C-alpha cells in the first residue's frame, strides 16, 4: 500500500495541534477511513530541509545579533515599536526585542514570519543575509562574512599554545 504524504507548514501558534497549520486533515481522515477496523498505525512528523548548524546559530547569536543591538543602541534607541496590524507595542531595547524586531521585519519583507526554531538551514541563512544587508543599509554597519575555516584556525592556535 502506498502511503500518501500530507504536507503542511507549521504556523507560530501555542497549541501543539494548531502548529500543524494548513495540514489537510480531511485528506488524512479519508485515507484512514479506508483502513480495516482495529488497524494500528502511526504518524511521523519531520522537518523538511537540513537543520541549522551550531556554527550557523553561533554566527547569528555571537556576531550578528549583538552587532544589531549595538547599532540600535548607538543610534539612540531605548525602545522598539512594533506595528502589528492596527496595534502598536513598545518594548524596551534588549537583545531579545532586537531579535524579535528583525524576525518580524524579515517576515514582512519575505511575506512569511517564521521563528528561527522553525527555519531550515537555507531559510536561516537567507534570514541572516537579509539582516546583514538591512543593517548595512539602515545603520551603515558592516558584518564580516562567516569564517568557514574557523575550526582549523582554532586548532592551529591551540597547537601554537602547546609549543
- Count of extended strands: 2
The residue fraction in helices comes out at 40-55%
- In terms of DSSP E residues, the strand content is 5-15%
Overall shape:
flat
* Discrete helix count: 5
Could you give a quick summary of the protein structure above?
The chain has helices at about 25-35, 55-75, 95-110, 120-140, 150-160; strands spanning about 80-85, 85-90. The chain is mainly alpha-helical and about 160 residues long. The protein starts with about 25 loop residues before the first helix and ends with a helix.
Structure notes:
The mean pLDDT is 79. The protein folds into two domains: 1-46, no CATH class; 54-139, no CATH class. With 163 residues, the chain is mostly helical. It is built from five helices and two strands. A hairpin with a 2-residue loop joins strand 1 and strand 2. The radius of gyration is 22 Å and the shape is flat.
List the helices and strands and how they pair.
Elements: H1 25-33, H2 54-74, E1 79-84, E2 87-92, H3 95-110, H4 121-139, H5 150-161
Antiparallel strand pairs: 1-2
Helix pairs in contact: 2-4
Structural key phrases:
single chain; 163 residues; mainly alpha; 2 domains; two-stranded antiparallel sheet; 5 helices; 2 strands; 47% helix; 7% strand; flat
Amino acid at each position: 500500500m502506498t502511503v500518501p504524504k500530507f504536507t503542511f507548514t507549521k504556523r507560530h501558534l501555542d497549541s501543539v495541534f494548531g502548529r500543524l497549520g494548513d495540514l489537510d486533515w480531511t485528506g488524512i481522515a479519508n485515507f484512514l477511513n479506508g483502513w480495516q477496523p482495529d488497524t494500528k498505525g502511526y504518524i511521523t512528523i519531520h522537518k523538511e530541509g537540513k537543520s541549522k548548524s551550531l556554527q550557523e546559530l553561533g554566527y547569528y547569536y555571537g556576531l550578528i545579533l549583538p552587532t544589531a543591538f549595538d547599532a540600535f543602541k548607538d543610534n539612540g534607541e531605548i525602545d522598539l515599536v512594533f506595528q502589528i496590524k492596527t496595534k502598536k507595542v513598545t518594548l524596551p531595547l534588549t537583545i531579545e526585542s532586537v531579535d524579535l524586531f528583525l524576525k518580524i521585519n524579515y517576515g514582512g519583507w519575505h511575506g512569511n514570519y517564521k521563528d528561527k526554531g522553525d527555519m531550515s538551514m537555507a531559510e536561516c541563512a537567507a534570514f541572516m543575509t537579509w539582516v546583514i544587508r538591512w543593517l548595512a543599509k539602515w545603520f551603515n554597519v558592516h558584518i564580516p562574512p562567516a569564517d568557514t575555516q574557523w575550526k582549523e584556525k582554532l586548532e592551529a592556535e591551540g597547537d601554537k599554545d602547546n609549543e
